[in-house]
């Protein structure tokens, strides 16, 4: 079974691309969603985050995302700390998930595939890219974030240019190209 890493900057359209792959009955592991679940359910993660950031990092036993985001997206060392706590737990969860799949390939959607070092553990990499202004507009609409908040997140990810250079496939999700034909082309290569 091949493991395909799917990445792209915030607002690039990774989730849309993942949903299309899922319609082809390709299992998709969304690292961001699973990490969020694990940050609420893993006692190992909870203990380390509370120890580092205080009890305010959890409200009613649920991760206080806004509180944590305000800290980590303005302090690279704190971001690296959180990643060092969360990533090993997500990696083990992913391995268990992969062992339960029965397809030619699976998709691992991960916004920080390169930053986390996860690119070393996949067979192929797909980057979804879109112009930064479109990405920022999408995230502001989707999350109700401010321009400044979205820009801070973008600055904590490696550039699309670098991701594209390090990828096997690129899906352009702008207003000029349709994404479906691009996805179908990749899917056909993967099932061969």
How do the strands and helices of this protein lay out in sequence?
Layout: E1 2-7, H1 14-23, E2 28-30, H2 31-41, H3 43-53, E3 58-59, E4 62-63, H4 65-72, H5 76-99, E5 105-109, E6 124-129, H6 132-143, H7 147-155, H8 160-165, E7 169-172, H9 179-191
Parallel strand pairs: 1-5, 1-6, 2-5, 6-7
Antiparallel strand pairs: 3-4
Helix pairs in contact: 2-5, 3-5
Quaternary status:
single chain
Compute the number of helices.
Answer: 9
Ranges with pLDDT <50 over ≥5 residues?
none
Alpha-beta classification: alpha/beta
**Helicity level, as a percent range?**
40-55%
How does this structure look, described?
The protein is α/β, with parallel strands linked by helices and 192 residues long. The protein has 2 domains: 2-27 and 101-191, 3-Layer(aba) Sandwich (Rossmann fold); 34-87, no CATH class. It contains 9 helices and 7 strands, in the order E-H-E-H-H-E-E-H-H-E-E-H-H-H-E-H. It has helices at 14-23, 31-41, 43-53, 65-72, 76-99, 132-143, 147-155, 160-165, 179-191; strands at 2-7, 28-30, 58-59, 62-63, 105-109, 124-129, 169-172. The strands form 2 sheets. The chain has a 5-stranded parallel beta sheet, with helices on both faces. The protein has a two-stranded antiparallel ribbon with strand order 3-4. Helix 2 packs across helix 5. The mean pLDDT is 94.
């Amino acid at each position: 079974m091949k493991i395909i890493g799917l990445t792209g900057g915030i607002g690039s359209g990774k989730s849309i691309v993942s949903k299309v792959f899922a319609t082809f009955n390709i299992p998709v592991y969304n690292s961001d969603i699973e990490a969020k679940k694990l940050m609420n359910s893993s006692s190992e993660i909870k203990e380390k985050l509370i120890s580092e950031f205080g009890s305010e990092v959890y409200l009613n036993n649920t991760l206080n995302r806004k509180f944590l985001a305000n800290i980590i997206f303005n302090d690279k060392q704190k971001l690296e700390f959180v990643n060092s706590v969360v990533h090993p737990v997500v990696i083990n969860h992913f391995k268990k998930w992969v062992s339960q799949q029965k397809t030619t390939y699976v998709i691992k959607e991960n916004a920080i595939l390169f930053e986390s070092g996860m690119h070393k553990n996949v067979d192929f990499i797909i980057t979804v890219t879109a112009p930064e202004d479109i990405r920022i507009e999408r995230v502001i609409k989707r999350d109700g974030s401010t321009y400044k908040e979205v820009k801070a997140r973008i600055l904590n990810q490696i550039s699309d240019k670098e991701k594209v250079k390090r990828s096997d496939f690129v899906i352009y999700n702008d207003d000029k190209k349709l994404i479906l034909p691009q996805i179908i082309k990749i899917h056909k290569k993967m099932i061969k």
